[in-house]
Design goal:
The chain has about 140 residues and is mostly helical. Helices cover about 55% and strands about 10% of the residues. Helix 2 runs antiparallel to helix 4. The N terminus is likely disordered.
Length: about 140
């Protein structure tokens, strides 16, 4: 079983979905507070997660439960329970008179990119499960 899990993409897909789910909460919170005076949107750069994922896959370390073991990246911390994000304030727009730093277009772009990445990872995971089911049944 351990050999199967280390050769499988399921642990990487599991962590990817956990990251994107946690990030989605941040991005939705940004939209919900866009009109709040003084609110500054926050996010976690997905490249930090992608780098940690790449390093974990290169080492191929999987724990007893089959989860991929990560070295914690600065804005992303991994545990057996999931992913914890340490978001940073985005400063990619001018500060408005009410102290808010919002750009609806950029917030929607980040949200859309995250949703599409989540859909792709979940579809890949579904395909992996379909392949396992076909192998178990010994027919397509």
């Amino acid at each position: 079983m351990d050999g199967f899990m280390t050769g499988s993409s399921l642990p990487a897909l599991e962590r990817s979905l956990q990251f994107m789910s946690a990030r989605q909460k941040l991005l939705v919170g940004n939209l919900a507070n866009a009109e709040t005076p003084g609110f500054r949107p926050v996010d976690v750069d997905p490249r930090a997660f992608q780098g940690a994922l790449r390093d974990a896959m290169d080492t191929g370390s999987v724990d007893q439960q089959g989860s991929l073991q990560f070295d914690d990246a600065a804005p992303v911390t991994f545990s057996s329970a999931g992913v914890e994000l340490k978001p940073e304030i985005l400063a990619d727009n001018i500060v408005f008179h009410d102290g808010n730093d919002r750009s609806a277009e950029r917030m929607m772009q980040r949200l859309t990119e995250n949703v599409y990445a989540f859909r792709m990872a979940s579809q890949l995971m579904r395909n992996q499960f379909d392949l396992m089911n076909a192998a178990i049944r010994e027919r397509p």
